[in-house]
Batch of 2 targets.
Target 1
Amino acid sequence: MKILHIGFLNPFEGERRGGVEAFLSNISDNLVSKGHEVTILCSSNTDSRRTYKGCSVVTLKVPNIKPDVPGSSILRKTWYGLKVGFFLRRHADIFDIINIHGDNGIIFRNGKHNIVTTFHGFRIRPELKIGLSFNYISARILSYFEVNHIKKSDRIICVSEKIKGLVSARTGKEVRVIYNGVNTEYYRPSGEGEKLALRKELEIPKSEYIAIFVGSPPYSKGLDIAVDTIREMAPENIQLLVIGVNQKTARESNIPDADNVHYLGKVYGTSKLKYLKSADF
């Protein structure tokens, strides 16, 4: 079969890859090994078509706006979403299955295509404070793409029961849960010597028990549950390190502060792996 996956970042390039990119890389490898023709659509600063590990990667050019410019991410996402829509108008009939991931793109549906949407998170969440915060405004804008996907999709998949609950509230369609797999070779636990060396490098006291949370956005990935558990049940020498969310975003999501919860923000690649290997759980 000819299968199109639609993401945002190239899953085969660079360290700034999140869960969606890891998912796309793994599922594409598996599909190619089974003889399917796989194409991944993603954004870049140029229009291009290249082959990675037997998989065709098509990039659509989006404005190269510096990350520190206010609204840069929402501008790039919206621009990319519209370009995806026009790409599908021209090329959708080539593919047997179109799998859209999250809020990436918009479907101008003309004709019958087998469209699957996989939600790795969900923009509209009950914990978001209604108002003029950037998080709320960007979530409202990008949620248009998600609602569009819900309406136009033949199948809807979520990677957790929590995300399923958020999506199901917006549709009468069947929503299935397929959990993400874990590469146990890559994320293997450290030996004691390696763990102590990593803790010294990361300036983590060896007397502390370290729990790691990785995920964003906070609510749909269950950060509220993790923080409540640490605040109410954990002894003082257990510290929760949160990767993927900064403290400002957590507060805007109504997640309370706690002395033993530490927000590291975005951490990628080998740096993230070091934290994971240095943790106890």
Target 2
Amino acid sequence: MHYNEIVIQRVIESKTWCNIDNIIISIEFKNVNLRNKYLDSSMTITESFQNQIVKLLEREITPAVGCTEPIAVALAVAKLTSILDNIPEHIEVFLSPNVLKNAMGVGIPGTGMSGLPIAIALGAVIAQPELGLELLATINNEQIEIAKTLVDSRFFKISVKENCVEKLYIQVTGTYKEQSAEVIISKDHTRFSFIRLNNNILYKTSKEETISDETENFELNFNKVCDFAFETPLEKILFIKKSVELNKAAAIELNRTFVAVAVWHHHESSVGNSVANNY
């Protein structure tokens, strides 16, 4: 038996990963015949369980411009603003302790600023909730300047949601003239669970949806993850490719920027040393 095949067989039999030839293993498993040779023809996890993990992956691999917590807050504010059809005169933001902790000091891409105030202001300025977590993908300098002005005006108040049991909970309320609105995002960064304009409830999570959310808390362990990886058809998880491409593009841009900065520093250092040596 070929050495690489022995490694693969041991991986499957022991259900543990080894540090030898990990890259070769992943390449070899692209060969369908080799995969079928070592895997039992009968599936060890159900299609329903497969679908649950796929839904979990889809939820966790959602593309976002910036850290998900402050962007989710910006998304809630964007929804609030779109409902009021104007930038609110005053906004109150209530957050679960976990969201507040993760969002307080995070940098907001393209602004040179960090934290919730600028995220809230940008959400109000952009007001395009249909963009989801990519809300900040197209911001321009004019929008950033307007947002900075809003931050300086202190048109918002941020508080911890009392007795909040959810890890992810974002509630924003706002007013514009005689109008008032409220938006709640909970459980997931893009999951609107409550939307109100004045006394009219525009949307509220149904009991059936709440029950469905609770049933998604299924148990995972290493063996089940391995079974999922080996048995799930690739077409079910092709959406992961988009995240790979986005991360690759980000890495290339970061590398390009890093090289440019490194060259600049080297040039400055060289010029400085040259000047110093002439005196």
